Amino acid sequence: MHWRFSYRRYRLPFRRPLRTAHGEWREREGVYVRLEDAAGMARYGEAAPIPWFGTETADEIEAACRGLGPNLDGEAIAKLPPGLGRLRSALASALAERAAVPRTAVLPIAALLPAGRAALAAAAAPLEAGFRVFKWKVGVTDVADELVILDDLCAVLPASAKLRLDANGAWDRRSAERWLTRCADRPVEFVEQPIAPGARGADDLLLGLAADYPTALALDESLVGDGDIERWLGLGWPGVFIVKPALLADLPAAVARLAAARSSVVFSAALETALGAQTALRAAFLWTGEPRASGFGVWPMFVDSRFDGPAAVPFLRWEEVERIDPEALWNALS
Predict the structure, then answer these.
(1) Which of 230, 246, 267, 324 falls between 20 and 30 A from 257, CA-CA?
(2) Which one is catalytic: 79, 135, 162, 244?
C-alpha cells in the first residue's frame, strides 16, 4: 500500500501556563501527519511529544517527516527508528481501523486543578458541574506549604470526592514518604510519579514505596513508550498505569498487554490537540478493564479554541469524540 504523505508543524499557546514540577508550560508543539491513498481518501494523525518525559522533540519529528518525502509505504514506516515513537504513533493512528461500537457510551472524567493554593478556588466550578474526581499538580512549591494546602483542599471537597496527586517526579525518598504518610488518612485515590524515572535506583524506590504505604502509586513519566509498559509489567508493578496513548507507538498491542495482565489503567491526555485526543479517547472508551475516571478534563486549553478537545465534563459521551473533524483541524493549520 502506498500513500501520499504530508505534514504540518504546529505551535499553539495555552490560555494559561501550566505549572508543573518540570517548570511552566506555555505552549504545545507537535506535528500533524496526513496520508492519502490512491482513491483520494485522507487520514490524519498527531505526533505530540513531551521532551521532558524523554520523547523526541517536535524539531526531530519535523526533520524526520521532511526526510520521508512525499510518498510512503508500509516498509518506510516500519523502518522509522524506535526513538521516533511519537511519529510512529501518529502514522499508526492515521492508518488504524475505526472501531464502530465503543465498550461504553459514557466515560467518567477527572477535573484538572492548578498547582498551589489556586486549586482551592478552582475546585468550585467543577464541583458545581458534578465532578467528583480531581487531579492536583504537586511538587511545585515547598512540601510543608503544599501539605497545608492538601488539608485545605480536602476540607473543600465533599466526602464522595477523590483526589489524585501528580508529583511529576519532583520528590526524593524523604519527601515522598512524608507525603504518603499524610495521604494515608486523606481521600487520595493515588499519587502519580512521586519519584523521577531517571533518579538513582528509581525502580526499586517506586516498588518499595508502593509496598510500604496504603495509598496507591501510579506510573506516568516512567511510561514513555511501549517497552516501559512491558518492563513494569515484568517487575510486577502493583499500582496504576497512567496511559497516554499519544506516547505509544503500538497502542493496540500495549493496551492488549495491560488488559491481559488485569492492570489498573487510567487513560490520560498528553495535552495534545483535538486530533490526537480523538485517538486517545477512543482507546479509553474501548478499554475492557476496570473503568476509572480518565484524565481528559483539560479543555478548553488553547488560545485558538478550534484545537481544543471536548470540553471538560464529568461524563463524556462517545458522540462528542466522533464529532471531532481531523480534516478541519488540518486545514486550520494552513
Answers:
(1) 324
(2) 244
Q: What is the mean pLDDT of each run of 10 residues along the chain (334 residues)?
A: 95 92 90 96 96 92 95 89 93 83 85 94 96 96 96 95 96 97 97 95 98 98 91 97 94 95 97 97 93 95 97 95 96 94
Q: Is 162 a catalytic residue?
A: no
The CATH class that applies to domain 106-332 reads alpha beta
Annotation says 137 is catalytic: yes
- Any idea where the domains of the chain sit in the sequence? 2-95, 106-332
pTM (predicted TM-score): 0.94
Fold for domain 2-95? Enolase-like; domain 1 (3.30.390)
Q: Are 30 and 273 in contact (CB under 8 A)?
A: yes
